[in-house]
Prior knowledge:
Elements (H helix, E strand, L loop, with lengths): L3 E5 L3 H13 L3 E5 L2 H11 L3 E5 L7 H10 L8 E5 L4 H10 L3 E4 L4 H37 L7 H15 L4 H13 L9 H4 L7 H7 L2 H9 L9 H6 L20 H15 L11 H14 L4 H31 L1
Parallel strand pairs: 1-2, 1-3, 3-4, 4-5
Helix pairs in contact: 2-3, 3-4, 6-7, 6-12
Amino acid sequence: xxxxxxxxxxxxxxxxxxxxxxxxxxxxxxxxxxxxxxxxxxxxxxxxxxxxxxxxxxxxxxxxxxxxxxxxxxxxxxxxxxxxxxxxxxxxxxxxxxxxxxxxxxxxxxxxxxxxxxxxxxxxxxxxxxxxxxxxxxxxxxxxxxxxxxxxxxxxxxxxxxxxxxxxxxxxxxxxxxxxxxxxxxxxxxxxxxxxxxxxxxxxxxxxxxxxxxxxxxxxxxxxxxxxxxxxxxxxxxxxxxxxxxxxxxxxxxxxxxxxxxxxxxxxxxxxxxxxxxxxxxxxxxxxxxxxxxxxxxxxxxxxxxxxxxxxxxxxxxxxxxxxxxxxxxxxx
Length: 333
């Protein structure tokens, strides 16, 4: 399948010339004369690369680029800004808008093709990386679906962990990592037999030993992807305990990564507040009481647990305060 290039330029002669030349190079080409049409073409044509003029009436190239990079479906699509502007501040503005490269007018077509092919190679690597991530997420969801009692568990963990990370003021890359890890943290359970994974009761020592291998297996599965670099410690260590009695490495105290401790608290809370074959779900209040006792026992970081409990309380109060308004809106519909 030919790689697709979208040309965005308000000059028809430029669009026509570039379209003809790029067709000869084997590319599939679409063209737009102004910003709003270009954004619509991004959704319909799904280009692999965008050649974008800066100086256009109405929405200029900087704004179009910024919108392309702010849209999840197109944020990784490379954009080459084409401009007669040469001032450094214009280049800086383009970089801030998310541009991947620049070309100056008049356009040297050989240079254009060389730069386009270079960015398209990088785009191919990115697409392959996203496909690999998608496979891992699908695998994680299929593992979750093996047990009817854990359906939705990963999504809840991703959401709770990210909220606690935000409350603690963690950088955005760690918030994203917590969401990723929430989905794949138990991916290592792919090697656990159903007889152990779905057993409706306590595990024997031998069974527990098999179960305790899943964090290491999960880390090994996700290790080849660089995008999971920050998630690996979470995957491996989300069953450690503050007093060193956890697994797989028996880490204690500050040895346990903060992000792993965050996901662990969300994991325990979700397990307590959902039905299991051997017990009914506990109420949020009872679950927090149990976790408080475990914190006193030395299992959890007390300060981290206090922040987690406060986060849940604030969330609950927010939802309760919003309920009358939500109900009122529902009654109007």
